Amino acid sequence: MSRLKLAGQVGALGLVAALLGLLVWKVIENDRGNIATKFAQGERPMAVDFNLQRLNGEGSLRLSSLRGKVVVINFWAAWCDPCKSEAPRFQDAYERYRDRVEFVGVDTADSSGQARQFLDRYGVSYPNVRDPSTKVLDAYGGLPIPRTYVVAPSGRVTGYIFGEVRAEELESAIQEALSA
Predict the structure, then answer these.
(1) How far apart are CA 114 and CA 129, in angstroms?
(2) Residues 139 and 52 in one domain
(3) Could you give the 3-state DSSP secondary structure of residue 118?
(4) How many helices (H) and strands (E) does the chain have?
(5) pLDDT, tens only, 110-121
(6) What is residue 48's DSSP assignment?
């Protein structure tokens, strides 16, 4: 009986090691070509285009339709505490810059009901879209969130903020993109 128990423990340990190896491989593979990694390496990559269903409004929104304008893209989720804290800052910035800057919220890994409740609760009125599969989020850097990108009129990412946005960080990134 003790040999069988030992074999089971060794098998379980081997499975855990294999799963850990798979996780590490996935993280390394995801980090190679995403926008966040390129930006951290000093590049100013082109924003990855997407076409996602709107949460607050009809139809879909294609990022490339906003080319020629400064665009702030914020990846968030209803379950994310820092996202809850920063939501009013994005709404304030949207109201201040709405004539010169487009704002797009990208909800990821939520049900549409949770996401709509989030938008209502925090009074978010700028366009928001759904990325339920996280494919767009993965192209921009993946979990964890929040992640915010500022895109210049040329389509190049000129600002990247990882984690909860502070008002002065957002202001600085928007000003840089407006002068690009």
Answers:
(1) 13
(2) yes
(3) helix
(4) 6, 7
(5) 877 899 999 999
(6) P
Q: In what order do the strands lie in the sheet with 101-108?
A: 128-131, 101-108, 70-76, 147-151, 157-162
Whether residue 81 has pLDDT greater than 90? yes
Q: 26-75, pLDDT tens digit by residue?
A: 544 444 589 999 999 999 999 999 999 999 989 999 999 999 999 999 99
**Of 147, 154, 145, which Cα lies nearest the Cα of 40?**
147
Tracing tokens 């968030």 back to the chain, one arrives at 76
Give CA–CA dist 88/86, Å, rounded: 6
Domain shared by 6 and 61, yes or no: no
Measured in residues, the chain has a length of 180
Q: What is the count of structural domains for the chain?
A: 2
Could you give the C-alpha distances from 49 to 27, 54, 117, 137, 140, in angstroms and in order?
Answer: 22, 15, 27, 11, 10
d(CA 137, CA 42): 20
- Which range marks the domain in which residue 37 is found? 33-179
